[in-house]
Amino acid sequence: MTPTPEPPDRDPMLADAWRAYSRESPPEALDRRILAAAHRAAGSGPRSAAKATGATAATRPQRWWMPLAAAATIGVIAVGVLQSLPDDHDLLSVTEPAAPESADVREQAVAPTGQKDAASAVSGRDAAPAAEVASAMKKPRAEVQSAEKTGSGNETAMAQESKRSAEGVAQQRRPQAPQPASVPKLPSLPPPPPLERESAVGSGKLDAARTQAPVPFPAAAAPRSAPSASQESDARMSARNDASVERQQHAAAPKLESRERRDDSRAGAGDAVTSLTQKSALADELRAKARDPDAWIARIRKLRDEGDTAQALREVRDFRSVVPDAERRLPGDLREWADARQQ
Amino acid sequence: MEGSPAPADSDESLMLAYGAGRAAAFDVLYARHKGGVYRYLLRHCRNAGIADELFQDVWMNAIRVRASYVPTARFTTWLYTLAHNRLVDHWRASGQARLVSIDDDNDREACDAIIALPGKAADEPEARAQTRELGAQLQQALQALPSEQRDAFLLQYEGGLSLAEIAQLTGVGVETAKSRLRYANAKLRDALRPLREEWS
Does the predicted model carry a pTM greater than 0.80? Predict the structure, then answer.
């Protein structure tokens, strides 16, 4: 477009004369001023290439919602993390390392028996009970820490008690050597629903979910642990020395007793796993009771009046172990009655 | 967009490049057209100070509207349109419907100023004297032209515009522009003929 054709009617003689004559140019100062202004203008705001083609208008609607979408996404993630973090922090941190350990134990326990079918049948269910064991081990530590922070005496006692029992069971489980498990071939069971736990965690009802968690079917846990008879007896001894374990056994008594009758080894393995779950529930229960000592005393009195002496005595013992000023709170008649009965 | 623009780049691409923020493109454009635009304004207003002011306004306007520049026509046409419009504004502001009347050929001051402007340094004294005399004659004859004819002549000889472009720029038909240009050429040739005959 730039090349200028010579006008056809341009007079050559006049053009030569004009070229010889017309040679003026603007002053240099004016040149510098204009060029400086041009450079300033270009440096201040270069025009984008998209502007000339109208692409700006086409892309504008796509640009404005991107920051909003990003902010909304970040907000949703942040709320989700904040909701799940306080309740499930320890659970999440322990679940991952616990799973391989349980897998190893399962392989050691099942491989000698050659019951690969049973192993394959329960392989899908191992992660969830292992997570429960890990959470049960982890939870008492967290309880101790939280109780120490709050300075509450009864909660500290309960947490420490729960921690001791969990560690005892864990020690019982760790040195397990490969033992031929006398476990019959297992029927394939549906895997435990993991979403139930997640939803409980997400809604902040983890404690309720733990207390209401169904007792794992012993057959599912048997190939994984399969403790020896001496280890079972050790576990039971340590558990019976603990008052909370007694309560847990009492609560799970009907189921556990019937299973023990069927198969000692299966019941022992199930007992180990179940005890952890029950201890967790027991700790929650004791904590709930300790919050209202008067109601607890009324319940003990009621048990005594109904003739359930053993249960009433256990309640008195728990009361004394959990409530800091138990002796002052405990009515004289109950105290004397309990002392007399225990002697 | 990086680097200095090539000299062969068209005016239009240079202006687009400048609109996109490439300041070096403007330097090339300015070097190409500053003389023509300046002389166009100077021949019309015959005052170097006013010509400087108008010249600066024209280029500042080009800088200001760089972003909206669309190469629908030659850049030269667009640039001389800016110069022509600025000149018309100047005429209106100064109360002159026409800057120079047909009979106005007595502005010796402007003529002297133009003649006094430096020529080529290598010019011989005799040739320089002839050029001065030729320039004076041309200046005289140019000022004697009607402003429309002078405008058409300057647009063609300084801006290099075609007849169609001159017609478009001045808002007249091509035939009218052609007629104006023919009259202007004839008058200027007549004014220079005695000198030519004398020199030859």
Answer: no
